[in-house]
Amino acid sequence: MNRLALFDCDGTLVDSQANICRAMEACFVAERLDPPGRDAIRQIVGLSLVPAIAQLLPQADAALHDSLAEGYKRAFWAMRADNALDPEPLFDGIVEAIDTLEANGWMLGVATGKSDRGLHLILEHHGLKHRFVTLQTADRHPSKPHPSMVELAMAEAGAAPHTTAMIGDTSFDMAMALNAGAHAVGVAWGYHSAQELTAAGAAHVVPHARALAAHLEAL
What we know:
This is Haloacid dehalogenase. The protein is 47% helix and 15% strand. It folds into 2 domains: 2-15 and 88-218, HAD superfamily/HAD-like (Rossmann fold); 17-81. The chain has 219 residues and is of the alpha/beta class. It has helices at 17-30, 38-44, 49-56, 62-81, 94-103, 116-125, 148-157, 171-180, 194-199, 212-218; strands at 2-7, 107-111, 134-136, 159-168, 183-187, 204-206. The protein is globular. It has 10 helices and 6 strands; from the N terminus they run E-H-H-H-H-H-E-H-E-H-E-H-E-H-E-H. Helix 1 packs across helix 4 (62-81) and helix 3 packs across helix 4.
């Protein structure tokens, strides 16, 4: 069986919080609603769009959740069309971690709440798309923490649950990993705290990307 290192994207590979917060604020304002605070928005990063909005506005009905989700997409793509997006940098040490894992024989993949289009654009921007053998997004799966993304990634990579590590910065990533029977590996540089990751079942919380390969080998 192959070994698979499956990465979340936002908050794990790239720091995309500024654009996510701006688009979320814009879609609430367009509906004449008070936007949630940025701490609240960061807590839902990683979920698919409609479930994320439902968590931010639980008292609203499904029609408003859907309308806000469409408004979020419009706001995000308008920022992109206007070249108004904030930088979405890779976290420090991510490229080195990918290089080391690949050299150690790990297959690499991504499982994210982003759309196919959004994921491909960010990976192409950073020159990383070719490094991943499997890319799973919200366009083709239920929202995290459903295990569907991990299960299909394992099938595409020829990996098994015991040879797969789901690497992410949120409790949703940890729960998804456990639901698929995979190892749950948290990262300390993202949007949920180490305490939240541990409470959600993380076997390890890695302090820095350069330490990631060593933690995975220890599994």
